[in-house]
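Project outcomes to date are best conveyed with an example. Our students and postdoctoral researchers have been running inverse folding experiments weekly, and each run begins with a structure described purely in tokens. The record below, which covers 106 residues, was selected by the lab manager from last quarter's runs and is presented without edits.
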């Protein structure tokens, strides 16, 4: 669900924004402020293309935050169906590390 962006300050790495490019949304990679009225936005689109654009206060009206791209979670992972297998592998690796650590202290 998109929310209207009211300030350039709302742009941050990991944010997904509509309105930077006319035909697709982008993920914010970096924001470089230039005083109080402009930022240089570095972004990546869904095609993997990286771009850069200077945005001014008057551009705020066309921008909308779609969702935070944020950190990886099992529900946002591209292969979420494999998540139980990944969790099991992590448990096994942790148990193995614990057993090896325990043997070294004996």
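After processing, the design step wrote out the following sequence:
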């Amino acid at each position: 669900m998109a929310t209207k962006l009211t300030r350039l300050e709302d742009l941050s790495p990991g944010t997904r924004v509509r309105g930077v490019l006319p035909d697709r949304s982008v993920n914010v990679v970096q924001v470089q402020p230039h005083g109080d009225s402009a930022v240089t936005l570095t972004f990546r689109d869904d095609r993997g293309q990286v771009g850069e654009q200077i945005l001014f206060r008057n551009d705020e009206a066309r921008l909308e935050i779609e969702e935070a791209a944020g950190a990886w979670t099992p529900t946002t992972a591209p292969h979420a169906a494999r998540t139980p297998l990944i969790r099991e592998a992590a448990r096994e690796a942790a148990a193995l590390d614990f057993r090896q650590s325990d043997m070294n202290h004996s």
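The first strand starts at residue 3 and ends at 4. The beta strands are 3-4, 15-18, 26-34, 38-45, 50-56, 64-68. The training component of this project remains on track.
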